């Protein structure tokens, strides 16, 4: 063990095999930087001994604590150099394992001393980068660079970069296929986007800042190394100074204070520099051998602080959060090594053995914790592999229509959520599992995109066909050759219905253009006929006069008689005949007046609609061409189908609330909406019945 303490042989024995640095040799270049733990344990205070205390007699230390340490470790301290029989009987493999544990701790302390961001990088959240699109990945990268320390986000940045590149490369492959399918030559293919350039720019900024940080860190570490080597030289010089012992001792304490504040040094120099420093500190204490008053004060202080470290390590050995315990244990080792000097030889072995035993216990707790986690991770792996298999199965069977693909998309979303909620898997298969998951999801996305790409092409072809029909309608809407153009306009209306869907964003727009052109033409046809029909002009005059009389009509207050009066009025209106196209708005005027009467009579909506509809039917039936009635009948059938479909959709929506109470506001709204549609359906059915009776 002896080489593990700061000063294994404080009695002056120089057989210590710890490597001592030749401080005149050139230092090597800084290797890759590692995180540094800068946190200090609040439980341990580093006391300072001032000159006033140097003349005081050293007080006795609480021997009960030391006795506990000695007895618990079965260490004999007869001569300060003999360890217990138990230790002597330990196997080589056990010693090797203990050395490995301590070596790991030494390496961790050295690594943490070089860079200050180790603890921080444990706390930066890793998000679901795979679920983000390219814009979101760029935003996340910018946020990390802006809000986190540049040296603490390397893993996050690399994951973001990999995800972005995979998504962009997939897009490139798709564009390449399109380019080749259109007859392009692969040599001429080139693809880039503004978002790719933006990502490259942000990533370049990250690399620049990271390189600048490590360049500055390298410079600082080398300067700190130089400063520490100078302090070692200054420490060595104390042995050759002829001055008052108080002055020399105060000089030594000043060197210790400056050493503590000298800053981090390169990791590969850490252990050697510290061992060299402790070696010359040991020499100084040998020099103070004749002045035990000073040495005993330091030994006493160091022993007290190391016992506090042991107390804290004992508490950590009982902690359930093994990762936090392990990180704090690193801090304790750092303090033991960097902040505290030697103790009396008789205590040196016992306290180190106690601290080492606690270190092993905390390490074993951590290893046992990881073993338990591995069992959980193995079960999680099985779950994730099953999920990947299901995703692969869903991806392997292609749907034939939009609704089928929408169902598959929902299935994949459920499986995807289940994958992310399944927990961690063993680290040795984590990358492989993640890669298999992404491959399965991407295969599904490729198949889905292929379908919608084909669907989009079909819709685009349909759009072009309908635009051609629009052009025909617009080219002929002003024609006066009614005999020739009317059959043509009817034909393109029929052709329009046979063409399939177009992109949703264009649907309403092109339908309006087509409808306006057709209506414009047929309105001209009707206007021409009305102009030649003198009877319609006379009918218009009669209806205008009838409306003036109707405005003067006052209801009696007897609903039955008043309704009969209104119906008689409607019968009279029917006899007045058709009006020309220019006067067709008179029907709206007449119906508005009737609405006022119906409102006074408090008739139901259905009754009102049917009475008014009778008036409309009479108008349609008076036309010589029966196409108007046929069109009206088709229109009503279409409305009935639409209302039926809306009712079915609302009833399906109601299934989502099957466990909700009837007084739930959402349930009540859906039920009211369903009833409203059912009322409308009854009205439309009644209208269809009336038109069939003609």
Automatic annotation (TrEMBL):
Residues 104-117 have a biased composition (Acidic residues). Residues 56-83 have a biased composition (Polar residues). InterPro entries: DUF349. Keywords: Coiled coil. Residues 1-20, 37-55, 84-100 have a biased composition (Basic and acidic residues). Residues 131-170, 603-694 form a coiled coil. Pfam families: DUF349. Residues 1-120 are annotated as: Disordered. It comes from the Bacteria. This is Chromosome segregation protein.
